[in-house]
Amino acid sequence: MPIKKGTMPPRYDEAFKTGAVKMVTEQGRPAKEVAAELGIYIDTLKSWLKRSGFQPSSVARQNRNDSRWRELETEIRTLRKQLAEKDEVIAVLKKSIGILSIP
């Protein structure tokens, strides 16, 4: 939405601002996506979010941390399963060695 030089930026009513902020804070949508959908600059939306006390960077960081945490939990489950399988193979091999070594 290009603004001609020398013209006043558009004024948005409080209901519009509140709705835009809620789209990010309550619906969890990315600010960039909301700004594009509403046809406003991302910096404008970020200033509204900041004014409302919302910290988009902390939410994004928390989402990344949660995602990483889920990935690590999945990896731990996979590794535990692999370890259990290896332990079973080792137990079978030990038994076979015992059987073979009996004269």
| Helical content band | over 70%
Number of domains: 2
Structure class: mainly alpha
Rg is 28 Å
Coarse morphology:
rod-shaped
CATH fold label of the largest domain = Arc Repressor Mutant, subunit A
**Low-pLDDT residue intervals, each spanning 5 or more residues:** none
Structure characteristics:
single chain; 103 residues; mainly alpha; Arc Repressor Mutant, subunit A; 2 domains; 4 helices; 0% strand; rod-shaped
Account of the 3D structure:
The protein is an all-alpha fold and 103 residues long. It has helices at residues 14-25, 31-38, 42-51, 56-101. Helix 2 (31-38) packs across helix 3 (42-51). The model has no long low-confidence stretch (mean pLDDT 84).
Task: Give the gist of this structure.
With 103 residues, this protein is mainly α.
Describe how the helices and strands are arranged.
Blueprint: H1 14-25, H2 31-38, H3 42-51, H4 56-101
Helix pairs in contact: 2-3
